[in-house]
Design a protein that fits this description.
about 160 residues, Single_hybrid_motif, alpha+beta, 2 helices, Biotin_Carboxyl_Carrier/Decarb, acetyl-CoA carboxylase activity, Biotin_BS, fatty acid biosynthesis, 2 domains
Length: about 160
């Protein structure tokens, strides 16, 4: 690839990003064909910031039953611990792509719920722009939850699994 082609590609990607912002789009995907075996595949995605308002799950306790109020407090706190993103063992996707739980179709998954993993061990693969990126375990522990299905798209920051 020549420097001029690279500069043109960078300008093209910047133009796509501007188009994304100007038209309030969240994603643009384009394939640019240069020749028989030469092409550029670009996917520009705007990361949305999601603000979640706190939700109260406990019903108001009747005035005649003050003993019910302490029991309602743990129920209100329980949903916060169910949020996978707040878990200290959450493994997030470092990129946008397609997640694969096994090294190739039909083979056994890298890990399953209950598997013991070592730091650096491959947990799964995220394919991005036809490149297979092995996602390593950030720490040693046991896989408690797998939050994605095989061959599904993921965004940057999507929680993939929980390791404790």
């Amino acid at each position: 690839m020549t420097k001029n082609t690279r500069d043109n590609d960078v300008a093209f990607i910047q133009a796509l990003a501007e188009l994304l912002n100007q038209n309030d789009l969240t994603e643009i995907a384009v394939v640019r064909e240069y020749g028989e075996d030469d092409s550029l595949e670009v996917r520009v995605v705007k990361q949305a910031t999601i603000v979640q308002a706190p939700v109260a799950y406990a019903a108001p306790a009747p005035a005649a039953a003050p003993a019910a109020a302490p029991a309602a407090a743990p129920a209100a706190a329980a949903p916060a611990t169910d949020d996978p993103a707040s878990h200290p063992g959450a493994v997030a996707s470092p990129m946008v792509g397609t997640v694969y739980l096994s090294p190739e179709p039909g083979s056994e998954a890298f890990v399953k719920v209950g598997s013991t993993v070592k730091e650096g061990q491959t947990l799964l693969i995220v394919e991005a722009m036809k490149t297979m990126n092995h996602i390593p375990a950030p720490k040693s522990g046991t896989v408690k939850r797998i939050l994605v299905d095989d061959a599904t798209p993921v965004e940057f920051g999507t929680i993939l699994m929980i390791i404790e």
